[in-house]
Design a protein that fits this description.
By secondary structure, this protein is mainly α. The protein contains 13 helices and no strands. Helix 1 crosses helix 5. It is globular. InterPro entries: Mem_transp_PIN-like, Na+/solute_symporter_sf.
């Protein structure tokens, strides 16, 4: 438990620092939106390419990872839709609860993978992302289309996935690794420096995006969504890993991903496709705060049952 707390403490400390400096007006509100674009379109893709080009990707059981992710998303979607059918929320509110219950925070996930499991864990995390990101985006758009009747268009969704910089980075990094080409030393030295900036700045941006005022204005939906994402999902993943995953490292990374708070980008999708954006902001904030307690618990005690 102490090792896990030691690894996770800097991650959540940087989130808190990000929130504190944003509240203090430093370095100014105009800084954060360009910073998030820099992180998403440059720093994180470079980090993934750099680490994956050097990692032992061939040791990652891609079939096991894909099966575990697909089963988790299918189970989570079925559960949330069933509860909505039995005890319905307003449709716009349900879309936010669904995103809160299903999506994961990439910045926290990559930082935790690197801190807890090193480069091997980061390679597994990249494969998890390569499977999970497209499926989750497709599921979320389908849910919005059904519950808000606001069409996004399948072609536009597919194009967005193809252009997703994190997916592109995973494909490039794995291709460089498997082909044996690797990353030329001149590029690797620069990528190494940029990679060192990616995780700290990403975590500061997560903290800067916290919205405590939105959290104070909402009630049970935040608790409902957080219980599904932060407690039920790890239980489902523990069951799935026990049945289908042989590698302990892979199972641990999958458990860690299942325990992550929801994605900060869920707010953008809620605003664009007619969801409850204020509730989404509250869920994002609430889950990040709650996960500071639940993630160490899950990672300390759940692996004992594998």
């Amino acid at each position: 438990m102490n090792e896990i707390l030691t690894a996770l403490w800097p991650i959540f400390a940087l989130v808190c620092v990000g929130h504190a400096i944003r509240r203090g007006g430093f370095p100014g509100d105009g800084f954060w939106e360009p910073a998030e674009k820099l992180i998403y379109f440059l720093l994180f893709p470079v980090l993934l390419i750099y680490k994956l080009s050097l990692a032992d990707v061939g040791a990652v059981p891609i079939g096991e990872v894909a099966l575990a992710v697909i089963l988790l998303l299918a189970a989570g979607t079925s559960l949330l839709v069933a509860v909505q059918w039995i005890k319905p929320l307003e449709n716009s509110s349900f879309t936010s609860v669904y995103q809160g219950g299903m999506r994961f925070n990439t910045y926290v996930g990559l930082a935790a993978s690197a801190a807890l499991f090193g480069d091997e864990g980061l390679a597994v995390a990249a494969v998890v992302m390569a499977v999970m990101v497209p499926l989750l985006n497709l599921l979320c758009v389908l849910v919005f289309s059904f519950y808000t009747r606001k069409e996004a268009g399948l072609l536009s969704v597919l194009l967005a996935l193809v252009k997703n910089p994190l997916i592109i980075a995973c494909v490039v990094g794995i291709s460089l690794n498997i082909s044996g080409v690797g990353l030329p030393w001149a590029l690797a030295s620069v990528a190494g420096l940029l990679s060192g900036v990616a995780l700290p700045l990403g975590l500061l941006a997560v903290g800067a995006g916290l919205n405590l005022s939105a959290l104070r204005k909402t009630g049970g939906s935040v608790i409902y969504s957080s219980a599904v994402k932060l407690l039920l999902f790890p239980c489902l993943m523990l069951l799935i890993c026990g049945l289908f995953v042989e590698s302990l490292l892979v199972a641990q990374v999958l458990l860690m991903f299942s325990a992550l708070p929801t994605a900060s980008t869920a707010y953008v999708l809620a605003r664009q496709l007619g969801g409850d954006a204020q509730l989404m902001a509250a869920i994002i904030t609430g889950q990040i705060l709650i996960s500071m307690a639940t993630m160490p618990f899950v990672l300390a005690f759940f692996p004992a049952f594998l």
